[in-house]
Amino acid sequence: QQNNAVGELKFRSARETNGDPSLAVDGLEESLDWSKCATIDNYFVRKPLWMVDLGRETDVAGVMLRTWHGNNKAINSSISSSVYRDYLANLDRYNVYVHLRPRRYRFKDTNLCSFITRTDQALTSSSRLHFQCQRPLRGRFVYIEADGSTDRWNKLFTAVLCEVFVYEQ
């Protein structure tokens, strides 16, 4: 199947400074190096967003996300293990939304495609996260929203999005 997200317009929450959002739709699926992935964090917003404009209205059936955190090499890389540990410990949930118009905040449940939480064990067990919509959602904009843990002293996290695949029914 064709990835409808490759090469389309990207956006992330205001005031982000690292991990260009276009890196999540550059077509390089096997690149799980942190520096080659888009990042969103909660330094300035509680629930950071990454968005792609598909360029046309589409019946979105699901999204597959390649992340950095399932990459065993990442633990042994030059990035310190404490950064890696905090990144995993503080990230609690991904939500995927589909919408007809660009939005930045307050999504309705009717626009929710799917979500994955820490309690699902899927959040940290694989570098491939699959979000199957409960039903096809018509929209042009696909959003990935990250949310952090509320029960830790340090609540900062970075969500690393290496490649995003959006597919139709």
From TrEMBL:
Domain of life: Eukaryota
Source organism (scientific name): Rotaria socialis
InterPro entries according to UniProt: Galactose-bd-like_sf
Name listed for the protein in its UniProt record: Uncharacterized protein
